[in-house]
Batch of 4 targets.
Target 1
Amino acid sequence: MRRLFLALPFALLPLAVAHAHEDHEHDHDHAHGSLAAHEHGVARLNVVLDGKALELELDSPAMNLVGFEHAPSSAADKAKVATVRAQLEKPLALFALNKAANCSESDQELESPLFGDKPAADDDGHAHDHSDIHAHYRLDCEKPEQLTNLDLSPLFKAFPATQKIQLQLIGPNGQQGVEATPAKTTITF
């Protein structure tokens, strides 16, 4: 399932290096600037279209999706986590794709300490004091040539605390890095 994403960090390395300095200047909550920095209101989305396979990998602070980052203890917190997980289990409702491409979900993986997974650790093995939610989807598209753009408006509507999505896209026209916002939700392949 992760075949396409294994190459993604290398393909985007020049872009990551270019943004690392910028992120470092604006990232006051973390000791080192990186594209994986945890920033409320900001999510990251990697998209790869390779032949008929479309892979989407979303990383977001839990605050953007459920409104908190602590382990759910109350019935209301547990219900909110369950609702968000159910929303994330329906990628075709979150990512608007041209229906003519005839895409269907073939695989998905959802991970978060809020879902009962062990807390993520950084490169040094230290556990984070905040929770992220990671969603990885693989879609099979019968007519990938019909995929001309990706509309993120359903994602922004479902999770209004998400103010921007830093998107890395690799498709038939090469790679691009763009920033989507509630006012600019459509990304061209």
Target 2
Amino acid sequence: MNYLLLINQGSTPTPEDQQAWAGLSEEERKAIFADYQAISQTPGVTPGQRMQAPEMATTVRVQNGKTIITDGPYVEMKEALGGYLLFEADDLDTAIALAARIPAARLGGAVEIRPLD
């Protein structure tokens, strides 16, 4: 089964948020990088790309045949989608175990798992 793991940053400190990132020890920052690297090397994982902040989004709608473009995300989001990865696993329990290893899941964010057709 193939799964899409959507990584919601929530209040997770990231390198882009220099103040929050600086609040972590050097050891914690190294552990986060090491965790993401190990996850990317897990058999069955196809790493995705980290996304820029929701404010960088462009939303496109078509109404009555007219294309409408809006700067920013479609909806206000409490937990911004920060990245994703694809995972080929035998079952949902294996996908859950991988999601639990993603640093964002333990640092104030969440990981949503969606089966793919």
Target 3
Amino acid sequence: MYGKALAPEYQGALSDLSVNSSLTEVLTAAEEQMAAARRGGDPRETARAALAVAEAHRRLGDIRAADRAWKTSYRTARSAGDASAMAWALWSGGTLARQRGALPLAFRLLRHAADTGKRSGDVVAYGYSLAGLAETGRIQGDYPAVEALHGELLAEARRRGEARHTVWALEGIAQIHRNTGRYDTAYAMFEEAAEIAERADDRRGHAWALRGLADIVSVRDGDTGHALELLTRAEATCRTMNLSSALAYNHKMRANVLYRAGRYPEAARMYELALGEFREMDEPRGEALARLGGVKCRARLGEDPARTAAELAELRVVLDRIGLRHAREMVDRAHGELGLTAPEETR
């Protein structure tokens, strides 16, 4: 039913690159192609190469370089009147904005990308942009608004036999189920995503699915050993492909698993590792979540309750500023979990 996973963001002379190409390999090839296209006076090819440069930098956690590259791609595509390339550049910029925690900007760029992709007739750019909007809403915690869109995108991906997008949609819906306590449904969807990704040789999608399965195995079953084994398998893929963001989230999940098992000193060290990784790539959502885990660990290890309450209050402000509703709820629940008085407006 599903063919081999494809990477449509690698275009033009770079279309032979695989979804599993290491990001350093992608970056080298894309920078060389962008320079060659500029020398040859080919703005369309320059825009496509700059897109690949932007995506490689984004996934490697080099935010500033990614920001420069997607804007270069967009400006070059616009100068050439290439609406399809403009849509892809906007998609890349919107995805980067989401990664940086700038959710209102992500929504604006991704809506513009979807409109531009639709006008250009590029159904793949249009679909990726809609998927980006759905994921941004999910990360924000606006589940009622985006669950139906996730479902529509899943149905379309299944109809087209697009393995990579099917895996993405399954993982997104599974995360909604997990966050709303429907663990069995979430597990089944993460499991299907892992199977499809493995058959389609989508190693990135497979690593994220394993992370989701580890979370469920830990929170639902209390099976710490199995959860850590799944995360170790996923981590190997992240390191092979230089997936900096995915690796940081893997480490944060490992810390979550250790925390649930009551292994607080180990969990604290792992949260600190993830925190450093998120800060290095300027990813505020991951940074805030890693900070929250660290606060909870230190509280369990005997930190002064007043200090814990102050740190939670600060995190609540940070998460409000980013607009992460589900994460803010996690902060509020931490008060009860740690025996602290909840903020007035949440009681």
Target 4
Amino acid sequence: MLGEHGSFILACYGVSALVLGTLALWTVLDGRLVRRQLGELEARGVRRRSAGTPEA
């Protein structure tokens, strides 16, 4: 069906799927880490500059 290069083609698809899956997992885990770090900073009273100054 895939000819004499079938194993090479399937290996390439497998490696590509593995790399894309790893990147997706890394992105999700890094996003959770950053959200946790931001929450800890905000709990300590550190605010983002984009949040503006509090109204007096």
